[in-house]
Amino acid sequence: MADVENPNERLIIDDIPATMKAVWFESFGDTNQLNYDTQFPTFHLRPNETEVVVQVYATSINPVDWKLLLGYLQVPCYIRLLKSRLRFKFPFIPCFDVSGVVVKVGENCTKFNVGDEVYGMAKHNKCGAAAEYMVIDENLLASKPNNLTHKEAASLPLTALTSYQGLVKYGKIKPGDRILIIGASGGTGTMAIQIAKHFGCLITAVCSKENFDYVRGLGADEVLDYKEKNWWDEFDGYDFDLVFDCIGIPENAQQKARRVLKLNGDFVTIVGDKPRPLTTSNLLKYGWDKMIIPHYYHITTEANGEDLDIITDIVEAGGIIPHISEEFPLSRTKDAFEKIKRGHQRGKNIIVLV
Ligand SMILES: NC(=O)c1ccc[n+]([C@@H]2O[C@H](COP(=O)([O-])OP(=O)(O)OC[C@H]3O[C@@H](n4cnc5c(N)ncnc54)[C@H](OP(=O)(O)O)[C@@H]3O)[C@@H](O)[C@H]2O)c1
Hints:
Distance between the termini: 15 Å
Helix content: 25-40%
Bound molecules: NADP nicotinamide-adenine-dinucleotide phosphate
Radius of gyration: 20 Å
CATH architecture of the largest domain: Alpha-Beta Complex
């Protein structure tokens, strides 16, 4: 395929070159496992009936990309034996988030056509967005919001889906609800504040002092600095409808959360008490946490095009504005992973391919 500079010509590309630029790894480990290749073969890019091939214009980096590289997302081996589709195939191309243009469609695709501008989140054992082309099921995609560039759109799917599913599908937020968002200035917290605001909630945001103005600008009504005081102990008398935990709150936090929640309040965490591999003992611990707070949800984000359609509507109504921290070329993906490891992001880091 020739290098096409005119975006309109790009829309009619229906063929895939034999090789592409891609980042990949062959075994789990730290960032030194990541390889950047300009001649990565594309023979695996054959869509099944409901899949499409997307030319990736941009992707973004999430903490889960690094955890996946470490091997944290492997399920216990007895589950892998029973369900082969949960296994990882190597070489593995990382990154969940994508924004780009459909260049090929499977036989039974009905949602998208060649030339459509789309964005979405891949399934965890497929990923694939750190490359010029990727295969993804069309049901995981939505039309790119009209008011966003591909770079901006690529910064949204995983964090926006996490916040939407945590707040709306599990937390069932409604206007006037009081929400406590912990880790409010990161990729997910940034989305959570904006979505909660869009639904008319009152927001208390926990982040470091340096980010107070930032989270207020996103819609937080009240801000607390997790560094300066033992903020959990400040909460006597608070009455939250929902705690949305993006950090993994400290020890004894489950008991403390009961104090700040209304009787029927929900506690939704996306981390648990610390990042953990999916071992049997951690799965048992989840059951125990659920017994302590009945409305306790430790959620895993579901890649889901229908939820993303709703997010597109919120974006186009001005309810979500993307916040990009830094842009990297694909060749510097390793640097972007190193940055996410440090854990003090404001908004998202993106990888730009086109
Ligand atoms: N379960 C799921 O499906 C799911 C989905 C998405 C994300 N996650 C996980 O959720 C976590 C957050 O993701 P993210 O994308 O928001 O990460 P991120 O973009 O790296 O943001 C992390 C944020 O946490 C803040 N922070 C660090 N320590 C804190 C503390 N003790 N108290 C309050 N805030 C603190 C940092 O702000 P300061 O600079 O102010 O310190 C930073 O803004 C990651 O562990 C990620 O893997 C899980």
